[in-house]
Design goal:
homodimer; mainly alpha; Farnesyl Diphosphate Synthase; 16 helices; 2 strands; 75% helix; 1% strand; Geranylgeranyl diphosphate synthase, type II (chains A, B); magnesium (chains A, B); transferase (chains A, B); metal-binding (chains A, B); prenyltransferase activity (chains A, B)
Chain lengths: 322, 322
């Protein structure tokens, strides 16, 4: 079995080896561009890890890993258009660099490339893998739709928020795990347990992200602490605060929504989070989801020593400081 | 074997029976909307016809037909955004009705739905069908990219134009034929002959469209005659005229490009087409492509009487007046 670092290398090398057509250049250059921006490649590594639980030959799953990473980056191109985002991983977004029309079309071509990778998998697993992949992709679209709709609403419940991040983020992690398991030759029950692991781990990961945005170490976090507060993003923390806060605190919160003194805004909202112990509540919810995830992983019918690497990666990602 | 009308009914009924999720409404309503706008359903009917050449049970190909029609309508949603088109089949385009962001995302979800239909086909044909479908889908994206780029250029050659319509339009027709053939159980040679038939027929169809835009009967054509002339669209006719016209006629043509008296513009450009016998040249090219198409169809290794319906449909579409 491979270490995480080795799997990351396999993914990076496989991405480098992909050859897109050279023409039309404006269709394919954005795809090479966004694929080369890096990132932690967590999703494809999870897919490979999941396959390796059941089959020592990790090579059989590489096209699946490429499909997932390509699909994920396609969603980033289209999401960045919808969110009007200028920067992705420190570089211009595709629509800033090539224009919106080109970004729409390159995204579409990238979705096709993702399917092309998936279709190269062994025929025996193709139907099950693609069924899972399509369900996953629909879920991601639904999550993005809800995320856009929530921006226009002030009455989003925590239940709705959890459902949104489940679709937008966690279902894709679940999909990676299940697809990897199917490729590796897992039975239905194990594949579904790994799906449950992935979804709940994905939820825990996103909740940790919400917490780190406020309480992360500014140096280690790598992005502006308080970014969610500044943009009034409806995270678990904000929704929980709205649920618990007294009338005068809610009024103070409301009066801050348009504030332009960001340092003051971040400080004041953080103080409100502290007052209502929002961090503890968010951490408890995060840990609850992580527990569900690891319980599912425990139930997977293979020897524990084969799960060690996956266990370690998942725990490090949930306990991360950046 | 079924008649064209029966196959159209099968396609319409299958489209009506598709149930999209009810939520999020704004994600799935645009999909139902554009799928219900109608059209001739030529592509799915061709796919069913192609499958029926080899297998009497047309039901085995219906999910393929749905996949192709769903994919085609997805490209219409995204193309209409890129082309800034307000009207599609006499109704508001999706981005006018739901906004650009929603139209991008519903298009994405629709691409997933197309793959979902395709994945329901029999496991034995899945890999070959999806490989062809992915190649086709890439081609369509490449064609749309070239079409957008050509709008910014004044030096497009006829060869480039034919390559663009091949990718944007004809490859999808070829894909329908090949996918239908694979589902029906055709061998590789027959499937490829039907692909060649579809591509060349698709080219002939598009060239006929270019001709009808200028020379169609205004009543039967159903859209404004001369629409391509008014919008300075670089069609086979315009590119051929540019190739052949004398300097003073080219100057006259250039001076008309910004004309606002559309009736005068259409009349004058048509007169130039007549002067250089552009209609005959376009018709000759159209017939050349149709001949290649029907020669490929002739070579398909099945009895001629099984090809009768397909032959009839293809000839009627090429000799159509609308």
């Amino acid at each position: 079995m491979h270490s995480i670092v080795e799997l990351q290398d396999i993914v990076e090398q496989a991405i480098k080896n992909v050859q897109y057509p050279s023409q039309p250049a404006k269709l394919y250059e954005p795809i090479s561009y966004i694929m080369s921006l890096g990132g932690k490649r967590i999703r494809p590594v999870l897919l490979l890890l999941s396959s390796e639980l059941f089959n020592d030959d990790v090579a059989i799953a590489v096209e699946g890993a490429l499909a997932i990473e390509t699909f994920h980056n396609f969603t980033l191109i289209h999401d960045d258009i919808m969110d009007n985002a200028p920067i992705r991983r420190g570089k211009d977004t595709v629509h800033v660099k090539w224009g919106v029309n080109n970004a729409i079309l390159s995204g579409d071509a990238m979705m096709v490339e993702a399917n092309r990778h998936m279709t190269r998998l062994d025929t025996s697993v193709l139907k099950d893998v693609l069924t899972c992949f399509n369900d996953t992709a629909s879920g991601v679209c639904e999550g993005q739709q809800l995320d856009m709709e929530f921006e226009q609403r002030t009455d989003v419940s925590i239940e709705e928020y959890i459902n949104m991040i489940r679709l937008k983020t966690a279902v894709l992690v679940g999909g990676c795990m299940k697809i990897g398991a199917i490729i590796g030759g897992a039975g239905t029950e194990d594949a579904n347990l790994l799906y449950d692991f992935g979804v709940n781990f994905g939820l825990a990961f996103q909740l940790q992200d919400d917490i780190l945005d406020v309480y992360g170490d500014p140096v280690k976090f790598g992005k502006q602490v308080g970014g969610d507060i500044i943009s009034n993003k409806q995270t678990f923390l904000l929704l929980k605060l709205k649920e618990l806060a007294a009338a005068e605190d809610l009024a103070a919160l409301k009066s801050l929504s348009g504030a332009t003194d960001y340092a003051h805004k971040v400080k004041t909202v953080t103080r409100l989070y502290n007052k209502y112990k929002i961090r503890d509540l968010a951490t408890a919810e995060m840990e609850r989801r992580a527990d569900i995830a690891f319980t599912s992983l425990d139930k997977v019918n293979i020897r524990d020593n084969r799960k060690a690497e996956l266990n370690m990666l998942a725990r490090s990602l949930i306990n991360r400081e950046h």
